[in-house]
Amino acid sequence: MFTGIIESTGRVVSISENGSNLSFRIESPISKELKVDQSVSHNGVCLTVESTDGNAHVVTAIEETLRKTDLGSWTEGMDINLERCMLMNGRLDGHIVQGHVDTTATCTERRELNGSWEFTFQFPREFAHLVIEKGSIAVNGTSLTCFNVGKDSFTIAVIPYTYEHTNIHQVKKGTQVNIEFDILGKYVQRRLELGTS
């Protein structure tokens, strides 16, 4: 379980294929503090630490994860957002994020607004019921607020701190990102689908 408040960014230093899986070696400021079998959010995707070595750690994405996220398009040298799982003795500064990516979205517009930035994303229309005006959403694992919500699009506003301390500054028109919708909305939708029986 995560909060969507990015702790650090890391760099993909190598990628290897293992059957239908991809393993990633990540260098980051927090890698030396990680332990094998810990869950860490990588661009919003919950992955298990398989090994650590100094300032690097290794994680693997299986076929199901590769199909639902953008991990299959990762390249060596790219920066990713990292967050360790939340502690139960502190404040929840973002919103409840599971690290279970629902789909990907594509940036259709990026605007700089003299000190802040706005990004508009298009996502599969089948998820429209899970995006609400002023609702929470995780974009590459970052907890953000939606506005200008349409049937298959939404906009987020980014403050300078978030812009500088996450990989959102790398997002431009055409960039694909990982999206996780608010878990509370998903439970409500499931209840409505089941009806009263």
From TrEMBL:
It is an enzyme of class 2 (transferase). Keywords: Repeat, Riboflavin biosynthesis, Transferase. The keyword tRNA-binding does not apply. InterPro entries: ATP_synth_asu-like_sf, Lumazine-bd, Lumazine-bd_dom, Riboflavin_synthase-like_b-brl. It comes from the Bacteria. Residues 1-95, 96-192 form the Lumazine-binding domain. Transmembrane segments: none annotated. PROSITE patterns: LUMAZINE_BIND. SUPFAM superfamilies: Riboflavin synthase domain-like. Its EC number is 2.5.1.9. Pathway: Cofactor biosynthesis; riboflavin biosynthesis; riboflavin from 2-hydroxy-3-oxobutyl phosphate and 5-amino-6-(D-ribitylamino)uracil: step 2/2. Coiled coil: none annotated. It catalyses: 2 6,7-dimethyl-8-(1-D-ribityl)lumazine + H(+) = 5-amino-6-(D-ribitylamino)uracil + riboflavin. Catalyzes the dismutation of two molecules of 6,7-dimethyl-8-ribityllumazine, resulting in the formation of riboflavin and 5-amino-6-(D-ribitylamino)uracil. NCBIfam families: PRK09289.1, ribE. PANTHER family: RIBOFLAVIN SYNTHASE, RIBOFLAVIN SYNTHASE ALPHA CHAIN. This is Riboflavin synthase. It comes from Sediminibacterium roseum.
